Inverse folding.
């Protein structure tokens, strides 16, 4: 897992660290003495979705950038001993006011992030999450506010039940079974490409070659077949976070694409409204993705919000 990837003044290192009952794989870019930005990945995806180019662009602005695999993905612990939850049963239980019995919650996943900061000796960090990672970042900022300098929520939502959900065909692709890559590798890749193409925006042509390479990289790093279902169940059970977000004192940024069919733009606006003083950046033509053509705008926006003092601070980071 350990590795080095050096560009001028930027060094990449990585390791696997025990956090409670799970091992968390992580990598860091930039000077370890610089203020930290923690990047949290989305549903069923790995830390490499925060590409090296994106991480180096942030590190070049004077930050120590840390990315990690959530539990049940990549090189972190796979909870294969826990059967994948029945998503319909989870929704049914919540519908009658009963909390389903799940392997873990988004709060547990937020605890993994706090544990990683502890292990790295980082008291406070700027927290950036995409999709499900944005939801985990929101929990960090609301429930572990003393550890969060700023909050950036990208293509995510608050769990507000009044906000429209995914387009029906997108939801079908998300929940539909993927071919087993050990039996049908090309079918597995075709399934992943179809989903990625559907959720990509119209701002630039879809880069199928880059997407295929990323899917292959994730497959090589480690696949947890039931991990996405376990994470999805945790997301569904997380509920409405708006009351928790009302107490956030860290500077907030919400980034959302106008073409997002998985978590529609209304969810981004709802998130910005729920975080006191948050800035909303809507990117025309962006879908549920973070392609290279938006790196400059998103990195600059994260840097700006990270430089802002919080409402309970005197101006220091």
């Amino acid at each position: 897992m350990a590795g080095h990837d050096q560009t001028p003044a930027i060094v990449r290192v990585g390791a696997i660290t025990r956090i409670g009952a799970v091992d968390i794989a992580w990598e860091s870019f930039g000077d370890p003495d610089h203020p930290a930005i923690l990047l949290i990945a989305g549903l069923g995806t790995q830390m490499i979705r925060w590409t090296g180019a994106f991480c180096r662009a942030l590190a070049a602005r004077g930050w120590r950038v840390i990315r990690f695999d959530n539990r049940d993905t990549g090189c972190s612990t796979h909870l294969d001993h826990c059967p994948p939850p029945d998503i319909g049963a989870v929704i049914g239980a919540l519908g009658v006011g009963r909390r389903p019995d799940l392997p873990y919650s988004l709060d547990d996943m937020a605890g993994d992030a706090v544990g990683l900061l502890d292990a790295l000796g980082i008291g406070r960090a700027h927290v950036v999450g995409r999709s499900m990672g944005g939801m985990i970042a929101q929990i960090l900022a609301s429930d572990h506010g003393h550890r969060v300098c700023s909050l950036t929520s990208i293509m995510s939502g608050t769990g507000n039940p009044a906000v429209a959900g995914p387009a029906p065909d997108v939801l079908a692709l998300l929940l539909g079974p993927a071919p087993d890559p050990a039996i049908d590798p090309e079918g597995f890749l075709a399934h992943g490409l179809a989903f990625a193409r559907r959720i990509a925006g119209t701002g630039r042509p879809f880069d199928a070659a880059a997407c295929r390479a990323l899917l292959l990289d994730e497959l090589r790093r480690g696949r947890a077949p039931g991990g996405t279902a376990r994470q999805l169940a945790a997301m569904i059970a997380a509920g409405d976070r708006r009351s928790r977000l009302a107490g956030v004192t860290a500077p907030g940024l919400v980034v959302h694409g106008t073409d997002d069919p998985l978590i529609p733009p209304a969810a981004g606006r709802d998130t910005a409204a729920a975080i006191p003083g948050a800035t909303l950046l809507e990117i025309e033509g962006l879908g549920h993705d973070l392609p290279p053509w938006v790196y400059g705008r998103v990195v600059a926006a994260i840097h700006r919000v990270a430089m802002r003092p919080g409402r309970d601070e005197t101006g220091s980071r």
